[in-house]
């Protein structure tokens, strides 16, 4: 009796695995869940104070504890730079690839892969404007960008951004801000909630 029951389950499973409507439904559900997670990530990125401040450029106001000026001038970007453009482009290009279903005993499942860059790849999209091989993103989310105490917001033709210069004041501190890492961690948690096992025949 048990053997007959198992054979019946397998037969049903085979038929379901060939059902194109089922497969189409799975793809729609998975992509919809992914798109919601992606949009949430993009919204968080675009609304983040760091993104807004760097997009606004040298004239932006700051909310990061700088003695004066803003993050754009503190890091030292060229006046016409768009420091977050590559990060935004990468997040907008995220996509999901749903693989062929897999049948194991009484269960049908699908798996998926997302083209999410590694943190090292994100760092490479945010080069330090005055130091080749360094990343302002890595420094800011790591030990912090140094020389906060030496930064002063004085408009100067000698400044790359025309929004700040270094001074000879004594002391040193670091500007450290959590930015991309928490967003990516939350995105990973969101996409991991996508239910890959669609049907289970008991």
How does the helix and strand content classify structurally?
Answer: mainly alpha
- Give the averaged pLDDT, no decimals: 76
Helix count?
A: 8
Contiguous low-pLDDT stretches (5 residues minimum) are 1-9, 149-156, 158-172, 197-202
User: Main beta sheet: strand number and arrangement?
Assistant: 3 strands, antiparallel
Report the count of strand segments: 7
Query: What's the order of the H and E elements?
Result: HHHHHEEEEHHEEHE
Which helices and strands occur, and which strands form pairs?
Elements lengths: L1 H16 L2 H28 L1 H8 L14 H5 L9 H8 L3 E3 L3 E3 L2 E3 L2 E3 L4 H6 L11 H6 L9 E2 L12 E2 L13 H13 L4 E4 L2
Antiparallel strand pairs: 1-4, 2-3, 3-7, 5-6
Helix pairs in contact: 2-8
Summarize the structure.
By secondary structure, the chain is mostly helical. The protein has 8 helices and 7 strands.
How would you portray this structure in words?
Residues 1-9, 149-156, 158-172 and 197-202 have low confidence and may be disordered. The protein has one domain (2-200). The strands form three sheets. Strands 2-3-7 form a three-stranded antiparallel β-sheet, covered by helices on one side. Strands 1-4 form a two-stranded antiparallel sheet. It has eight helices and seven strands; from the N terminus they run αααααββββααββαβ. The chain has helices at 2-17, 20-47, 49-56, 71-75, 85-92, 119-124, 136-141, 180-192, and strands spanning 96-98, 102-104, 107-109, 112-114, 151-152, 165-166, 197-200. 20% of the residues are buried. 45% of the residues lie in helices and 10% in strands. Helix 2 (20-47) runs antiparallel to helix 8. It starts with a helix and ends with a strand. A hairpin with a 2-residue loop joins strand 2 (102-104) and strand 3 (107-109). It is mainly α and 202 residues long.
């Amino acid at each position: 009796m048990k053997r007959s029951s198992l054979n019946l389950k397998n037969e049903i499973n085979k038929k379901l695995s060939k059902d194109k409507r089922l497969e189409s439904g799975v793809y729609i559900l998975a992509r919809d869940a992914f798109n919601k997670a992606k949009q949430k990530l993009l919204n968080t990125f675009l609304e983040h104070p760091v993104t807004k401040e760097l997009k606004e450029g040298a004239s932006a106001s700051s909310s990061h504890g700088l003695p004066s000026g803003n993050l754009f001038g503190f890091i030292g970007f060229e006046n016409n730079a768009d420091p977050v453009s590559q990060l935004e482009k990468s997040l907008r290009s995220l996509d999901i690839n749903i693989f062929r279903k897999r049948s194991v005993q009484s269960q049908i499942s699908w798996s998926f892969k997302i083209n999410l860059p590694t943190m090292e790849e994100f760092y490479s999209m945010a080069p330090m404007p005055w130091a080749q091989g360094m990343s302002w993103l890595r420094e800011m989310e790591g030990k912090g960008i140094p020389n906060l105490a030496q930064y002063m917001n004085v408009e100067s033709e000698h400044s790359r951004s025309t929004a700040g210069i270094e001074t000879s004041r004594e002391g040193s501190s670091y500007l450290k801000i959590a930015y991309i890492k928490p967003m990516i961690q939350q995105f990973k948690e969101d996409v991991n909630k996508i239910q890959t096992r669609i049907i289970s025949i008991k």
